[in-house]
Amino acid sequence: MICSTSIERIVTGRNAALAQTEALIQQLGDISTLTRSIGGITAQDWAMKQDFRCGCWLMEKRETAMKAITRNLDRSIWRDLMKKSGMLSLMDAEARNQWYNSLEKDDIPAISEENILNTFEQLHQSKAEVFEHGIINVFKGLSWGWQRDRLADLERMLMILDGKPVPDNRADVTRRLSDHIHESRHSNHYEDEMFAIKYFQKGTAHITLKRTELLDKLNDIITRHYP
């Protein structure tokens, strides 16, 4: 699932970084105690640029600081692992938002070998369900109007069903359509390998899928959920 990624190296590096950070906080606290005792105030004052103080967890109490620093570090590692796993390409916009929002909570799972393996084993087992859920969400939402994320989701799902690489978001159909509209102001039609799109000034669009064999695969998935 996670290409060229050593879980042991990640966990070991994370634990070493936190241990060194905790030692650094203790050392800064000891230095502040010393400088305050000689009339030189604390590190929060003399270590900052003149007339400019900003929040820094390294200057806070160790218990409070380590809790926040650990959560921030673990959050960034989970994001990187998820990106490398390839699971994000199977998710629609709603599922991706749910994943990222879950990382903003205070009780995110700690980075450990057990938690990483359990998390991605569960994701791997449910990847077909995640993909199908995304397809259902796209088609339930398209009839309600023009939404860039849903069109990008649709293209990504078609590319996966076609066995082709998922396009980078800088070159997906929404970006190509936007460039076409900007460059061809008198046109109301866009077409590529997957789509024929007729768009209107009121902000809506009619989207036709050109690859009927891929459309059949989508319909097979949809009819399993809505016979």
Average of per-residue pLDDT values: 85
Number of strands: 3
The value of Rg in angstroms is 25 Å
Strand content: 5-15%
Structural class: mainly alpha
The side-by-side strand order for the widest beta sheet comes to: 1-2-3
Largest sheet: 3 strands, antiparallel
CA distance, first residue to last residue? 33 Å
Unreliable stretches, pLDDT < 50, 5 or more residues? none
Approximately how much helix is present in the residues?
A: 55-70%
Rough shape?
elongated
Provide the succession of SSEs. HHHHHHHHEEEH
Discrete helix count: 9
Describe this structure in words.
By secondary structure, this protein is mainly alpha-helical. It is built from 9 helices and 3 strands; from the N terminus they run ααααααααβββα. It has a 3-stranded antiparallel beta sheet, covered by helices on one side. A hairpin with a 5-residue loop joins strand 2 (195-199) and strand 3. Helix 1 packs antiparallel against helix 3. The radius of gyration is 25 Å and the shape is elongated. It starts with 6 loop residues before the first helix and ends with a helix. The model has no long low-confidence stretch (mean pLDDT 85).
Features:
three-stranded antiparallel sheet; mainly alpha; 9 helices; 3 strands; 60% helix; 227 residues; elongated
